[in-house]
Write a structure and sequence with these properties.
Family: Belongs to the anthranilate phosphoribosyltransferase family.
Pfam family, one: Glycos_trans_3N
Radius of gyration: 19 Å
Keywords: Amino-acid biosynthesis, Aromatic amino acid biosynthesis, Glycosyltransferase, Magnesium, Metal-binding, Transferase, Tryptophan biosynthesis
Strand order of the largest sheet: 1-4-5-6-7
Helix content: 40-55%
EC number: 2.4.2.18
Distance between the termini: 42 Å
Number of helices: 14
Domain Glycosyl transferase family: 73-320
Amino acid sequence: MTTVTLMPDPASPLSRESAAQAFADILDARASEEAIADFLLRLALRGETSVEIAEAARALRDRMIPITAPAGAIDVCGTGGDGQHTLNVSTAVSLVVAACGVPVAKHGNRAASSKAGAADTLEALGLDMERAGAQAEATLRDLGICFLFAGNHHPAMRRITPIRRKVGRRTIFNLMGPLANPAHVTRQLIGIARPDYASIYAEALEQLGSEAALVVAGEEGLDEISGAGPTHVVSIGAVALPARITPEDAGVARHPTLAIRGGDPAYNALALRQLLGGERGAYRDAVLVNAAAALVLAGRDSSLPDGAARAAEALDRGNAGALLDRWIAYA
């Protein structure tokens, strides 16, 4: 294979064609590790454009191992890296929303900067990651939920992981996960830990053909809708929420972010089980406000209070907990 010796100069924004070629060269191992590291670092220092983000995601999508999803499937996912070390909110939201009848193709990974990522916590709950991956398409069809472990679906990323460690800071690849869901979902609730980047990220989603999406960023730098205060929202396509929302807009109380501080996988798994068992408090309210937005996104409810009420019913009736049990036992 021919090795590209020079990557494009990212001092200025790249054209669509240059960006597409650059990320094809990166993912197909046609560039040296040194050239890739330098390119990613300089791109991050300058600040990625929506075109560059979209073309990086498009290149990753072209090389992923996909699954077939039912109509109306959504994803609820954050970019990670917010440094808040909270409990697994999007994982809990995925279970609650799926229990409300909306298919959820949950894309996720193991922890990178926290102690427990979605995969770690689900495994601690008893979900067999290997089996869940092999049966993802079937569980999504039969149960309305699946977990798409990033490592199983993005083989092109294996070479990039050590390069990202070498760079030692956030790069464009930290933004790619939610944009390359293997189920090709076109409706997404995406949390980004950079409020100043929400609009740019939303532009990338539009370029990628999203039918409807909500890009959310907690004002404190949280990569989900904050349960502690205001959240910036950028709406795309066939969904619209106010540009700034608070927990009270969904009819739930505020709690400090510290109240949903997470721990290791066992700690987070216990907290999630208690939530599904009906425990009230900060974790429940954070899940309710995020689930409310996801249900509005899916077209199941028309307002945040209605969505929060539906989500609360799924918890109180034990539907979300029962779904998790069926998922774990799925043969």
